[in-house]
Write a structure and sequence with these properties.
alpha+beta; Immunoglobulin-like; 3 domains; 6-stranded antiparallel β-sheet; 5-stranded antiparallel β-sheet; 8 helices; 18% helix; FN3_sf; FN3_dom
Length: 413
Amino acid sequence: MKKIIYLVALIFTFTSCSDNDDEVIVAQCDQPQNITVNNITFDSASIIWDNDGNTSYTLEYGLSGFSIGSGTSIDINSNSASLSNLSGNSIYDVYVKANCSASNMSLYTGPISFTTAAPLVVPEFLPNLSDLNLFTENLNDLTPSDRAFIYDLNTTLFTDYSHKQRVLALPEGTTMEYVDDGFPVFPNNTVIAKTFYYFNNERDESEGRQLIETRIIIKKNGVWELGNYKWNANQTDAVLDNTTSTVPISYANNNGATVNVDYVIPSAQDCIECHSSSNVILPIGPKLRAINGNNQLEEWIANNYISNLTDASQVSILPNWEDAVNYTLEERARAYFDMNCAHCHSAGGSCGDQSYLRFDYDTPFADTYILEDKPNIDFRMSMYYDGISMPLIGTTMMHPEGYDLIREYLNTL
């Protein structure tokens, strides 16, 4: 009996071994290797990985941190893919798996992460400032997009002690063109922005600030156009509004005193009066001589923002009117006149036919008529009276420090 049982067991063992020999063992599908991301733009990217002989893959992608299964999935019959309609200035994760057969797929390789470029600045007057892509996501931080840059002026225009941030954005692949010490030739679709604000406490900027308006000038088909964006009460965005309005401001100055300002936001027509020369709208501030300081022009050259200029020393320098160490009284006064008065008091300016005064810094003194009009200049800067005080637009008060400079200069003539 034992021999019979042993024989049956032996037969069963051989039969089982024979069945195993007939099975086909399928190797695990290998994961894709060496995934790279190329040709990244603000809304697209190319993904490629090693060609391991497979003809089918699944790629899944989404904003960084997404869970597999919740992203966008693509089935691909090659070892590359092009992604489109991405969001600018965003981090994305990509996963790829190989499909060796319907029942044999690899594990996902990933995440492979990449960051899209900043979205293009939009050279249009859209309803909200945020729509223009001039600044990064937290708009009220006023952090410029990677496609825009801040610039400063050696001497600035007085606007009721408000602070200003100036931003310039050139279209992709373009530069400004150097001609002389004045304005460069700006390419079409250039966007220039100037944001006006007050710190709540001039002695402690960490206490925050109040953003009031962002003035925009855009060059379209060779013609500059103006628009104004007013910041909302929550300081989250600014809305296109070309009408005049008054914003009450209260802040603590450097002496700790409370200053109240009824800040007037100008209308579009008011802006045109100052920005018009022979009925052509132009920027006011960014003449090269007004920018040539603090290595700004050198940075423009190095970053290829401007062409036809290799050395900043080729450009003259408009003095800083507050710098009594490096510049004479006359140089400082003439610089103040240039920035605060010359855009109107010039041939073709809004006061060009009403006054013979010419305040451009490069105008020879004998042709400025400053000497001849000393009393009138002094009077109209010495107080504030709407419609009489200079400048006519853009301020609601006199500028004591500026007046002191000009009075001292006039007294030497």
